[in-house]
Design a protein that fits this description.
Helix content is about 45%, strand content about 15%. The protein is α/β, with parallel strands linked by helices. A hairpin with a 6-residue loop joins strand 2 and strand 3. The C terminus is likely disordered.
């Protein structure tokens, strides 16, 4: 697969995030398009074009997806989402993660070795949600993290601290393909199987695997996830596991919110979580009628 150039959408994202931060601070005032545009130093015309290029809808419509009322509505519709996903054998066309993402867990012995004998290839790439670092082993993707404030060296250091005994090599060609595959999956199109190589406790991996059952354009609560891994009183522990997800987007931790409808925290920033959800909900809502079903049999 040839690497797609995401440089423009990555640049667009920075202004989208800036606009989302502005709206978070001024949502009670219901700012007009002109005020939104001014917050990112653009004219109304260019701001509208920016949004259309990035997600395909107006800024006003985009923000409607991110209201607490909309989130609560989705939670109501998604109450039994995970149960249905499990019951259907994970074969519905709307759940590409179940079909095309496979997970392999690091064994306890490998965990103790802290990556000894493992070769990790990594690269930093633009994406529609900002720069991200991708790390691969022969057994699959082992890390994906967004680069905060353009601090690339900090991201690389964090990766190496998580696999201290591993051997690291830059491989922008190999890791660039993962970005392409990630976006194919994120848009619910067919893809070659993508493997993940997960390092975590048994509980964390159980939570991360549960997140793979959440269809795009949907959200569930932390309590929902706890219920469907058979530990209904462990919602706080679920929250901790969600926050430690090593491969965001592919393991869609952004689709877990508070049962009150609040979006909750996100390791990569609240604005990015809202950008991910809003972008995904817009794509989901604009899809064909049959894909508007939250769960397909």
């Amino acid at each position: 697969m040839a690497t797609i150039n995401y440089q423009q959408s990555s640049q667009d994202y920075e202004r989208i995030e800036q606009a989302i931060r502005f709206l978070q601070s001024h949502h009670h005032e219901q700012p007009a398009l002109s005020e939104m545009a001014k917050s990112v130093n653009l004219s109304e015309y260019h701001f509208q074009r920016l949004f259309s290029r990035w997600v395909g809808i107006s800024p006003k419509r985009f923000m409607q997806y991110l209201t607490k009322e909309q989130a609560k509505h989705l939670l109501t519709r998604s109450e039994d989402l995970l149960s249905v996903s499990y019951a259907t054998g994970l074969s519905g066309p709307s759940r590409l993660h179940d079909l095309f993402v496979t997970c392999e867990a690091v064994t306890p012995g490998e965990y103790k070795q802290r990556g000894e004998g493992v070769e990790i290839r990594f690269g930093i790439h633009p994406s529609p949600f900002g720069e991200c670092l991708v790390a691969l082993t022969d057994r699959g993707v082992c890390n994906l993290m967004f680069v905060q404030n353009h601090e690339r060296e900090a991201a690389i250091t964090f990766l190496k601290d998580n696999w201290p005994a591993a051997k690291f090599t830059e491989d922008y060609g190999g890791t660039g393909v993962v970005i392409d595959e990630m976006m194919v999956l994120f848009q619910r199109k067919s893809s070659a199987p993508l493997r993940l190589y997960l390092s975590g406790t048994n509980f964390q991996i159980k939570v991360w695997e549960a997140l793979l059952q959440i269809p795009p354009g949907s959200v569930v609560s932390y309590e929902d996830v706890a219920m469907h891994i058979g530990m209904p009183s462990a919602s706080r522990a679920v929250g901790n596991a969600v926050s430690r997800n090593p491969i965001p987007v592919l393991i869609p931790c952004h689709r877990v919110i508070r049962k009150s409808g609040e979006f909750g925290k996100y390791r990569w920033g609240m604005s990015r979580k809202k950008a991910l959800l809003g972008w995904e909900m817009a794509k989901f809502d604009l899809a064909s009628p049959e894909t508007n079903l939250l769960v397909s049999a």
